[in-house]
Amino acid sequence: xxxxxxxxxxxxxxxxxxxxxxxxxxxxxQVEAEVRVIELRDLAVDVANAxxxxxxxxxxxxxxxxxxxxxxxxxxxPIFSGSYSGLFKSFFDVIDNTALEGTPVLIGATGGTARHSxxxxxxxxxxxxxxxxxxxxxxxxxxxxxxGGASDDFTDGLGRRIARAAGELAELLxxxxxxxxxxxxxxxxxxxxxxxxxxxxxxxx
Length: 205
Description:
Layout lengths: L1 E6 L7 H14 L5 E6 L4 H10 L4 H11 L3 E9 L2 E2 L1 H8 L10 E8 L7 H12 L3 E2 L4 E4 L9 H22 L18 H12 L1
Parallel strand pairs: 1-2, 1-3, 3-5, 5-6, 5-7
Antiparallel strand pairs: 3-4
């Protein structure tokens, strides 16, 4: 299994990356998967050039193939002005709108205050629904107060949400057939000619 983790945090260290890492760890604790972390901040110029030129360069194309070829995706964005970041949206805009069809996706977001948490439902979830992905029911939002060092209602609540969302994604991954690697075609089952002929005999008689 391949799990692509896309994070759109702009700073280093980033709370979006921290949330993405915790989500990925919770998923891989339940299902074995190869994790590829993609920091969109490193691809900002490549994404902008893709809009100007009309096609992605080699580096961006490789990242897009990693995301669209993954068996599952964890996508985390910071919330700005009540919605996903421009970089987050721009990256998924350069992906073909059918490339994530049927792919399980766990969405997460971070922000300075909990009042932005609904952005996951009115902005992020509809984006992946449009891309025909299968978005898990639980979305995970982490406000600044969720990162407290002591054990409290805020911190424990975040941990429970992460565990629940990761469990939902892991369950979907368990029931998927791993995608073929890039450049490989899925092998078709070869039915021996004798078996094909035997199946036709009742129809001929």
